[in-house]
Specification:
By secondary structure, this protein is mostly helical. Helix content is 77%, strand content 0%.
């Protein structure tokens, strides 16, 4: 329940802020390009009177103005949707990430790890190395073991 409330609060906050920014920018552009104030009812009355008295779209400037008026609500909704999908934590941390990227990615030495062939091959190679390192047994120990083995065999052969 709280998640839904927070989500709704986020959407409404973004909507209010985006609407304010969008209206200010759209109004500024319309005033500069066509001397048309979006928030002035007299300018809308002027367009309505022109259109109702048989006015027509004749030049490219009029076409662009008409397309702009038609697209404004769609751009407003699109911007609101994009801002809602934006991760604001990444947006706030962008300067820090940019600095870290600049600071730590300047010709850093790279370590390249080579992939070993196979773990069984490595095991066999290690076993061969260990066998070659083993010390040789003295001959006395061998002869004593052989004598003990002979006695054990002679005792077992009697029975």
């Amino acid at each position: 329940m709280i998640k839904k409330f927070l989500r709704t609060l986020k959407i409404l906050t973004i909507g209010v802020l985006w609407s304010y920014i969008f209206v200010v920018l759209a109004r500024f552009l319309m005033l500069k390009l066509w001397n048309f104030d979006l928030l002035n009812p007299q300018d809308w009355d002027t367009i309505a009177r022109y259109w109702n008295n048989g006015g027509s779209i004749k030049i490219a400037k009029d076409y662009i103005f008409s397309i702009n008026i038609i697209l404004l609500p769609f751009l407003w909704i699109y911007g609101w949707k994009k801002l809602d999908q934006t991760n604001f934590l990444n947006l706030l941390l962008w300067p820090l990430n940019l600095y870290n990227h600049w600071r730590y990615n300047q010709e850093m030495p790279r370590i390249i790890l080579k992939k070993s062939k196979n773990s069984y091959d490595n095991l066999a190679a290690t076993k061969q190395k260990l066998d070659s390192i083993k010390p040789q047994k003295p001959t006395e120990v061998k002869t004593i073991r052989e004598e003990i083995q002979k006695k054990i065999e002679s005792q077992t052969s009697k029975y």
